[in-house]
Design goal:
Layout: E1 2-4, E2 12-16, E3 34-38, H1 43-50, E4 56-57, H2 58-68, E5 72-73, H3 80-86, H4 93-102, E6 106-116, E7 122-131, E8 143-148, E9 157-168, E10 171-178, H5 181-200, E11 204-206
Parallel strand pairs: 1-11
Antiparallel strand pairs: 1-2, 2-3, 4-10, 5-8, 6-7, 8-9, 9-10
Helix pairs in contact: 2-4
Length: about 210
C-alpha cells in the first residue's frame, strides 16, 4: 500500500510492505515494514516560505530581494490571467529592486467628512494619500512571479506572489503572500503518488496509514 501525507509543509510518501488484505487469509498484517520518503524541499522554497506574510523594513526587504532576485521572473504572456484574476499589474525583477532600494513614501491625511451625530458625538473620516518623493501618486505593482523548484533538484514552477506594503509611523513596511503554496506542493506530491502506483501496481491512498500492530 502507498500513502501520501496530507501535510503540505512536510510532504512524504510511505509504502507499507506487509500491509494486510484479509486477516483470515493468513497474509502478513503487521504493518511494520515500511519505506518512508520525505520529499526534500529546496532551500529557495524554504527561504520564501519562511518570510511569507512577515513584515519587513525597507532595508531588510531590499537585502532579501537582492539575495533572491534571480528567483523572480519577468511576466510572461501566460501570466495575463493572474493580472485579470487579481486586478493588478505584475512587477518585473527590476521594478522590485527599484521599489526596495529607493522608495520614499509621503503620507498626507486630510479630513474627508465630519458629521455630528444625534448623540452629540463627532464622526470624522480621514482620507489618506500615499505619494512618492516627487509628490506623484504612488504606484506599486500588486504581484510578482517566482520561478523556483519547490523540491531539491526538481522542476521549476511559476508561482504568483502578492506584494503589499503598509506605512507605519511614516516608514514603509513590506510583506508578500505566496498564492496557495499548498497547491504547488500537493499537485507535485500527488503526481508522484500516482506515478509510484503505476510503477508498483500498488493501491494508493491520500492520508496517514494506521499505526503498526
Amino acid at each position: 500500500m502507498l500513502f501520501r501525507s496530507m501535510d503540505w509543509r512536510n510532504p512524504s510518501l510511505t509504502a507499507i510492505i506487509d500491509y494486510h488484505e484479509n486477516r483470515q487469509g493468513g497474509l502478513a498484517d503487521n504493518g511494520k515494514h515500511r519505506i518512508h520518503y520525505a520529499f526534500p524541499l529546496s532551500e529557495e522554497w524554504k527561504a520564501w516560505l519562511k518570510m511569507d506574510g512577515e513584515a519587513m523594513k525597507q532595508q531588510d526587504f531590499a537585502w532579501f530581494l537582492e539575495d533572491r532576485i534571480l528567483e523572480v521572473s519577468s511576466p510572461e504572456a501566460a501570466d495575463a490571467n493572474y493580472e485579470q484574476q487579481f486586478g493588478v499589474k505584475i512587477a518585473t525583477a527590476a521594478q522590485l529592486v527599484e521599489l526596495s532600494r529607493g522608495l520614499n513614501v509621503r503620507v498626507d491625511s486630510v479630513v474627508k467628512n465630519a458629521v455630528t451625530l444625534q448623540t452629540g458625538e463627532a464622526s470624522i473620516q480621514f482620507e489618506e494619500t500615499h505619494t512618492d518623493a516627487a509628490g506623484q501618486p504612488l504606484k506599486v505593482p500588486g504581484l510578482f512571479m517566482l520561478n523556483i523548484a519547490p523540491f531539491f533538484m526538481g522542476d521549476k514552477v511559476r508561482i504568483p506572489v502578492r506584494l503589499r506594503y503598509r506605512v507605519v509611523g511614516g516608514k514603509v513596511m513590506w510583506f508578500y503572500n505566496i498564492y496557495r503554496p499548498d497547491l504547488v506542493i500537493t499537485e507535485t506530491v500527488r503526481a508522484a503518488l500516482f506515478e509510484a502506483k503505476r510503477e508498483t501496481e500498488l493501491t494508493a491512498f491520500e492520508g496517514t496509514p494506521e499505526m503498526a500492530a
